[in-house]
Amino acid sequence: MIDRRRSRRSFLKLAAASAAGWWASLSPAGFAAEREPHRKPIPSSGERIPVIGMGTWITFNVPDAPGPMAVRREILGRFFARGGGMIDSSPMYGRAEAVVGDCLRALDRPEALFSATKIWTRSTSTGREQHADSLDLWGAGRLDLQQVHNLQNWQAHLETLRERREAGEVRYIGITTSHGRRHDEMERIMRSEDLDFVQLTYNILDREAEQRLLPLATERGIAVIANRPFRQKALIERFEDHPLPDWAAEIECENWPQFLLKFIVSHPDVTCAIPATSVVAHMGENMGALYGPMPDAAMRERMVAWVGDL
Amino acid sequence: MLPFDGPTWLAILEQYNQAIWPLHGVAALCVLAAIALAFSGARFAGHAIGVLLGVLWIWIGLIFFGGSVAPFHFAAEELAGVFVAQGLMMVLALTVMGRGGIFGWPGGRTGVLAVVLVVYAVAAHPLLGHLLTDTPWSQLSYVGVAPAPTMLLTLALLLLALPRPPLIVAIIPFLWALVTGYMAAGLGLALEYIPATLGVAAFAVMVVRRFQRSEPWLDG
Ligand SMILES: NC(=O)c1ccc[n+]([C@@H]2O[C@H](COP(=O)([O-])OP(=O)(O)OC[C@H]3O[C@@H](n4cnc5c(N)ncnc54)[C@H](OP(=O)(O)O)[C@@H]3O)[C@@H](O)[C@H]2O)c1
């Protein structure tokens, strides 16, 4: 008798809780809470950044002409409207930094901006000049992240970056590589230097970093930026003629770019991915990966197996 | 590694063409003079062709790569250096050292290939670009001021050097033919495969002529 009463009470409690949950999810506040963009912490500070950022290689290297500039403004507008933060660039990317700077001015410098650029030169003095140019081009007194591009002359440049951090011109410092190159050297630097960020290539087919670099990043408290999430479009071209698996709906993936991005940023050691695009609609698709459920370890294995069979 | 896409490359060409207009006319005069000299067989032709083509290569290096391409390409300075070096080599080899020998109609298939190359570089390249791909005139590459057609014209005229062309001045144009093919693939500009293929073919013919005593299949 007591048991039956207890179970009725717990049933009523459960029903009330579900109803409340259902009501909360319908209310605008509940909806907003559910649609919060995914963020992950930068281990060295605890600051949380959105897990989808954007790159600028090729896509923002455009002439100062009304047509291409208007498209780039719209891309950045969509990026920030959908919850984006990190923009990654480099002096190597031609006019990209200048274009980003112009667009940011046109958008009144959105507060969510997390500026990330690089020093790309063998020369130590040119490295200092590039840093000063970047401050100018981004139109900011301070950059959020300054990285040593492709580990070039990293010893000297890290010195410069530490100095600039002391001077308040940079908040975080890091190093980058790509295409799976020089992982051994990157590992040595990660072990010996005090870094806030590393940037490397990681996507559903290029998973070498899982072996040593990603676990090491977590062990050493270093944030990880995944570049070339689509292998420079090759992955999208490879998969786009195949339908997504039915179970992709469980993680709210409507298209391949979201499937590929959610795979990357659901890795526990990855902080964010930085897909690049020159198309406004593509930016909308990519930013969709910032929301909804993320794959767990079992689902991630399923994702790898699925693309392996295509 | 190309740091821009096809539309940006065409926009760079457009800005450059607008900036140098009407110097295309001056370049065209240099080109026509070089062609006329090459076919004329005049004794001083080699010396004059060295200066005319040399100046055009140096111009493209300094003004096109060093000026227009520089804001967009991290290796623009190096590319400018390569084009300037080719220009200086043309002057040194053909004009100063007279290595071009005499120029004239070689006859046979080599002659036909040279004519095809000249016609393509001077007229067909921009015409086909406009007619087949709808590219505006302002975004096309013109002989004497843009790299691909100038590379082709240079190889064409070198085919007319008798008894055989100095290979040393054909190496950079040949390498640029390869780069043109790479750009055709990377930028999605299918028409650029034509100058790339013609350039490679011209260089292959030169190599054969350089190392074979008789080449009946070329003279056929
Ligand atoms: N060593 C280094 O530090 C290093 C090296 C490589 C990259 N990076 C950084 O990482 C960023 C990303 O890498 P990446 O640019 O090489 O390659 P990526 O982001 O893997 O791919 C970019 C390509 O994907 C296409 N794309 C993007 N979203 C799409 C969508 N929703 N649907 C269809 N196509 C889409 C874009 O074409 P559309 O324009 O047509 O959308 C673009 O061609 C770079 O921009 C750069 O900032 C750094």
TrEMBL record, chain A:
Q: Which domain of life is it from?
A: Bacteria
Q: What are the alphabetically sorted keywords of the record?
A: Signal
Q: Which residues form the NADP-dependent oxidoreductase domain?
A: 52-297
Question: Which SUPFAM superfamilies does the record cross-reference, listed alphabetically?
Answer: NAD(P)-linked oxidoreductase
Pfam families in the record, alphabetically? Answer: Aldo_ket_red
Which InterPro entries does the UniProt entry name for this protein?
AKR2_Oxidoreductase, NAD(P)_OxRdtase_dom_sf, NADP_OxRdtase_dom, TAT_signal
Q: Where is the signal peptide?
A: 1-32
**Protein's UniProt name:** Aldo/keto reductase
Q: Which organism is it from?
A: Thioalkalivibrio halophilus
From TrEMBL, chain B:
Q: Which organism is it from?
A: Thioalkalivibrio halophilus
Q: Which residues form a coiled coil?
A: none
Kinase listed as a keyword: no
Q: Which InterPro entries match?
A: DUF6064 (IPR045708)
Record bears the keyword Heme: no
Which Pfam family, an example, fits this chain? DUF6064
List where the protein spans the membrane.
20-39, 51-73, 79-98, 110-128, 140-160, 167-187, 193-211
Its protein name is MFS transporter permease
Q: What is the lineage of its organism?
A: Bacteria, Pseudomonadati, Pseudomonadota, Gammaproteobacteria, Chromatiales
Per UniProt, the keywords (alphabetical) are:
Membrane, Transmembrane, Transmembrane helix
